[in-house]
Amino acid sequence: MQLMLHMHESSQIIIGRDCMFSGGIWMDSSDNHSILDVASGKRINPCKPITIGDHVWVGRQSTILKGSVIGSHSVIGAGSMVRGVIPPNCIAAGSPAKVIRTGVTWDRRRLPV
User: Fold this and answer.
1) In the chain, is it the N or the C terminus that has fewer CB atoms within a 10 Å radius of its CB?
2) pTM for the complete prediction?
3) CATH architecture of the domain with residue range 3-102
4) Can you give the residue ranges of every domain in the chain?
């Protein structure tokens, strides 16, 4: 399993309790380069923290971008690109990840259907 946490600048990646990560996950709290406003010369792409709530399951080969917040008890589908806020107790998938189901949680056990 590979979980890549990238922090090229002073920032935070906060991971809650009891989370589960599949392989090939990429998280980055920075763009790793500067984007400048032409008129002012000031940088317009600061780094932003990533926050993952408690009991979150992130599927294989997902990317979590700077400023993302994933609510507790949520599931991120495989191959998703998360940016922005994913509410608690939902399934989000796609690129960019969008909520596809609400009112859920998950369990490591394979329970009968």
Assistant:
1) C
2) 0.91
3) 3 Solenoid (2.160)
4) 3-102
